[in-house]
Amino acid sequence: MSRFVPTNLVVAGMLMPNPSVAISRILTNFLVPTIPPLILSQLEKTRLLKNNLKLAVPINFGLITLSLTIALPLAIAAFPQKAVIDPLKLEDTFWNLKDKNGEAIRQVFL
Predict the structure, then answer these.
(1) Which of 3, 20, 32, 98 has the most CB atoms around it within 10 Å of its CB?
(2) What is the DSSP string of 46-66?
(3) Residue 4 φ/ψ, nearest 5 degrees
């Protein structure tokens, strides 16, 4: 008999080893739905949008784009990813790299 596991539990289990990923997702998903509506509600009180209701949609898209442009890099920068990789697992141009002492480089830090 197969057992059904809810998707949100699977995702939560995958995120547990790396809580920084979960926090960055929360940061991104918090800023985008909250900032544009707050700004748009203030703009709707101005004469510009009261007289031109058709401008509300393009301004809303612009605010969403702007908030994503700001929020996504901030969320990514809050928890930079670090990796140590064997050069042999990269392109062949990295295979024979040597340090300043002439010794082979065995780890590349990304």
Answers:
(1) 32
(2) SHHHHH-GGGHHHHHHHHHHH
(3) -85, 125
